[in-house]
Amino acid sequence: MHAYATAAKLAEQMPNAGAWLSDEPEMESSIHYQQLALLVSCLEWYWRERQDFFIGANLTVYYSHQQLKHRDFRGPDFFLVRETERRQRNSWVVWEEDGRYPDLIIELLSDSTAKVDRNEKKDLYQRVFRTPEYFWFSPETLEFAGFRLVNNSYRPIRPNGKQHLWSGVLGLYLGIEPRSSRLRYYDGSGALIATAEESALMEQDRAERLAQRLRALGVDPD
Q1: Predicted pLDDT at 16
Q2: What sequence ranges are listed for the domain Putative restriction endonuclease (predicted)?
């Protein structure tokens, strides 16, 4: 069956697909795991009031009968689906999700995966998934690139003056944070999107500075 077969036909052949577990291996190293966890936790915190998205972290995307037959699984390191229900999933099964594919994919390059990520996966995401935006980043070498689907073909996303790449899907920039050498999110003004922990520390710092000002004025902040 062709990968573009309708969700209904696929569902007839594989009715219990929603129960399948992800078939992806563990992350290659601790630095890859830390980077993935940062991307997931930061965006979930930033969008904490929203219930209309799903983030997949090292989860298999099941998309065709032939894929299952040949065990040719594809699991992006990070993917985002917009305008869907925010709930726990064991994997992403396209025909159980109204035919929806990821809207954005990020692959974390490593020595063993870089060639596949730059070639086979890029072709799959462009030709079959038709994912609007595809990025890759190496936590080790800091290689970073992004592509946007234009007229059925991926075109490189041009960086701004800070070497950040704009994601229309996220409504945010992606860029390498200089101090940590990690891939982070930035808003339209270039400000770093804080994690929950960073936000808590900033709130604590603001509270301490306010208390100091009050004490200087002879006011007991307690």
Answers
A1: 47
A2: 30-176
